[in-house]
Amino acid sequence: MSSAARVAAIQLIARKSPLAAEASSKNVPELFGANVFGLEQMRTRLPEGAYESLESCMQRGQQMNAELADVVANEMKQWALERGATHFTHWFQPMTGATAEKHDSFVGFEDGRLLMEFSGKALVKGEPDASSFPSGGLRATFEARGYTAWDPTSPAFIRETRSGATLCIPTAFCSWTGEALDEKTPLLRSAEALNRAALKVLRALGDERTGHVYPTLGCEQEYFLVDRDLYVLRPDLVATGRTLFGAKPPKGQELEDHYFGAIPRRVLAFMEDVEQELWKLGVPVKTRHNEVAPSQYELAPIFERSTVASDHNMLTMEVLKQVAQRHGFQCLMHEKPYAGINGSGKHNNWALSTDTGENLLEPGRSPEQNMRFIVMLAAVLRGVDLHADVLRASIAHAGNDHRLGANEAPPAILSVYLGEQLTEVMEGLIHGTGGSSRTGDTMKLGVTTMPDLPRDATDRNRTSPFAFTGNKFEFRAVGSSQAPSKPMTVLNTIVAESLEFLADELGKRKDKGLEEAVNEVVVDVFRRHQRVVFNGNGYSEEWQAEAQRRGLPNVPNAVDALCCFGERKNVELFDRMQVLSPRESESRMNIQFEAYCKAIAIEAQSALSMARTMILPAAQKTQRDVAESLTAAQAHGLATERQAERLRDLSGAIEACVGCIEELAGAFERAEAHQGPEYEHAKCYRDTVLPAMDRLREQADRLETLTDDSYWPLPKYRELLFLQ
Ligand code: ADP
Ligand code: MG
After folding, report:
1. Pocket test for ligand 1, best of 219, 472, 476 (most atoms within 8 A of CB)
2. What is the percent of the chain with per-residue pLDDT over 90, rounded to a whole number?
3. Handedness of CA 139, 143, 145, 150 (dihedral sign)
4. Which domains does the chain have, with CATH numbers?
5. Which residue's CA is the nearest one to ligand 1's atom 5?
6. pTM here?
7. Ordered alpha helix ranges (H), 165-285
8. pLDDT digits (tens, 9 = 90+) for 612-658
9. pLDDT at 147
């Protein structure tokens, strides 16, 4: 690659214009769900009895019998064929953090005659050759096959391309011994645990009506766009998703002129295309805007049942990436594509819904509703305080380490923001003085109602990793590239465990009146766990000290955070809540240590090859030019000490860079050869390879500022960030 390629790419950008969207219609009601085989399609297409049976299977989480599966499969196939589908695939989430699919066509033969077939068996169960997916030791090679099983709570859908269409069936992925090999199964189990526990509490509070409680999720997705012609000239972006080099540009995000600014036209066309595509897939996309950093954007959907929302977020990330390419962009989902400006997160908005249409985290109008709300609040606070370590670990990976605690994203300390008023309510209950001093009322559980809580977005604290925002919690520490299933599984589980605890405590006080029992239990929980509440500035140094005083864990990096998945108390927690067996917990931890090592190893090798084959040669060509011109100047008696100094400067920087390359190469070799247990291996990458990469970057970025621009092959930050 030469700098000529860089110049050509830059020149091309000026000539690019917005692209028309792919969808043939702009009529949203017509588009929405057009490619989904949802409840509506099933109701109209399936014979009456069949639909009812399917519905009851879905509600009870039961397997379908073979007959019913055949009926459903046949209707699904007809529907898919009408939409031009030629293939079907089970669509699942192995423990790679991405989705996986293996396509089969409907083609089959009967008596030598071609027919399009899709059996009930093929619908409910698939057997992908699973031996190459990470299993963290769950699957010995002799039992390499796992199977995928349709999760009928998440509807089948069709993915279209220009040249064809594929029917996708969302599935869970298990080994033959029944162990979960994916992220979806634990998520489903955790939602079930939450349902069981929440119902116990509701019953204890005298609610006999609610039949089902389920977590809801709305994922705000942040991402960067970079012009694709520039992207392909950056081997680091291609291989690792982030820039490993790049000198600070003259302009970054300091003018704050990008956030909520007018959306560039080419980008807007891309967004419109994405939205139409997602609407067809039944993803309820709602919001789009520019984010804080240059070339950073956000998309947010309306919340849904967390299992469906999690599938939809995986689809959203896929669609963003695919549509970006069509529009000549690359969509960067990495938590920190560029140093020195904001990274990307994925706020997970989470609440609890009932089948009667209520949100259990909504402070209600009646005293009973408020009592319920306070109990739920107590459960969440207790869960986050007791299990801050696993919640922290659920968002721990190499990419998120660049973002957490970096004064732009929530700190690695997991505190809860409640806002002033709700904190006053909590304190009032603890001290027995009742409610909020602002309103002058005193609040008594079960008797009076809650003061109106502010729901204004401007009133929110953006520095908190876990914030109450009026009728939901917002888990902000989740990384942009992450599948939401893991953090949601953990959150569901720890809250379920707390709800079980509260239900038991209420049960012990049956002889007391309900209000007194609730008051006693809630006050005790608030007293023990109020230390996790923090409404101040999470970025401040004082908070670090204060959190330490309060005994809150502060684990700044992924490697240490991940260890807690192996601790007995946590293994037991997931086991007791029937979310992960001890073996499943252990396998997940190992997979993540491995993923960490691999991520850093790929970065180190990309950095080495770029430094050796792109950065040094460009700098050395400049060195040669400067040396030659110095000699020429000397011949004319024009050379000055300053000019000689410049050559020495450049040569010194080259020398330093060569030294750093050797150092990184050595560190990488030792890390690669490391034989210790997974944790030690990951630690070795963290403590030796990462710092060596940082030092190399510093020298290489210095060379960027000294090297002749016409030799520099890598698109620079000013180009990556501002040309679109
Ligand atoms: P912001 O937090 O940026 O001010 P909003 O308040 O509009 O934005 O909400 C952000 C996200 O929270 C949206 O995806 C929205 O659907 C989701 N959300 C709202 N209510 C709930 C809920 N009860 N459960 C889960 N997510 C919710
Ligand atoms: Mg938000």
Report:
1. 472
2. 71
3. negative
4. 1-22+221-244+255-344 (3.30.590.10), 32-182 (3.10.20.70), 188-219+348-439+454-578 (no CATH), 596-722 (1.20.120.1560)
5. 457
6. 0.94
7. 184-204, 228-231, 235-240, 265-280
8. 999 999 999 999 999 999 999 999 998 889 999 999 999 999 999 99
9. 84
